[in-house]
Amino acid sequence: MKALVFTGPGLVQVDEVPEPRAGLNETVVSVARAGICGSELHGIRQPGFRKPPMILGHEFAGRTPDGRRVAVNPLLVCGSCDKCSAHKPQLCRDRVLLGVHRAGAFAERVAVPDSAIHELPSTMSWEAAALVEPTANAVHAWGLAGGVSGRRVGVIGCGTIGLVCLFVAQSSGASALAAADVAPERRDAARRLGVQEVGDALAGEFDVVVDAVGVGATRAAAMDHLTRGGTAIWLGLAAPDPGINGQALVRDEKRVIGSFAYSDAEFVEAISYAERLDLSWVETFSLATKGALIFNELMNGRPLPVKALLEP
Length: 312
Ligand SMILES: [Zn+2]
Ligand SMILES: [Zn+2]
Prior knowledge:
Elements: E1 2-8, E2 11-16, E3 26-35, H1 38-43, E4 54-55, E5 59-63, E6 69-72, E7 75-76, H2 82-85, E8 96-97, E9 109-113, E10 117-119, H3 126-130, H4 132-144, E11 152-156, H5 160-171, E12 176-180, H6 184-192, E13 197-199, E14 206-211, H7 216-224, E15 226-234, H8 246-251, E16 255-258, H9 264-275, E17 282-286, H10 287-299, E18 307-311
Parallel strand pairs: 11-12, 11-14, 12-13, 14-15, 15-16, 17-18
Antiparallel strand pairs: 1-2, 1-4, 3-5, 3-9, 3-18, 5-6, 6-10, 7-8
Helix pairs in contact: 4-5, 4-9
The structure holds zinc ion (2 copies).
The site of one zinc ion has 9 residues, from helix 2.
């Protein structure tokens, strides 16, 4: 079968690879759409968790051999460690991500545990289905913040994660919503979601701010725009630098919470949000003929589409 393979620092190529084999209690899913994630664009320049050669792709949906249309939760957990027992599977001590630690979905087919499979509503488009995974990150983040209903919410970074955070906050009754991004194309995408306050930086004070970029400057901005006692959620993973003013954090009792992935229940909850998502910022490309090209262009700063999906 054909796959887009990460072959070395900064390198991907379409290759002919062996068919995946389903292990015990696993199924081979035929991939319909797989999204290219910002973490992959950053992650392959300086290989860390992802070791070449590796088939990337953790945001995806497809069809099982018996014809079910499914989204797959790519976070595989042990189910028995102290974190799993405490209902925090995202912190599992043995967590494995499809497309990071084992073969992912930038391929015609991928082997996945049966327990990771979630059936989709029959009317849901493949494009929306491929966005369930990023949307689950937003559901988890707002949960960690204690919910957004009636609260003023700011989001820094209007890539996929920022946009789905805005959408979930909007659907969950945030009292005010503002978004910031340095790229005009992404600010437009936020406006199309109905966010009125959109700029290259946040202005004013918020109860909760999400940093969906993950560099020192945006982490600091998330803190700076919090009201006293407010909560910053850090979701972005672009760089290690925390960037924050520790004294301000103490004096104003600000809180910073890191947010990583989601639980299985949050993944399922994300299906209904993703179903209603505006998809004007999403574009699909053929994996075989355009996969390597679009991956490289996005890695080199191509601003659009905000989310590229690959169709094997
Ligand atoms: Zn992702
Ligand atoms: Zn575990």
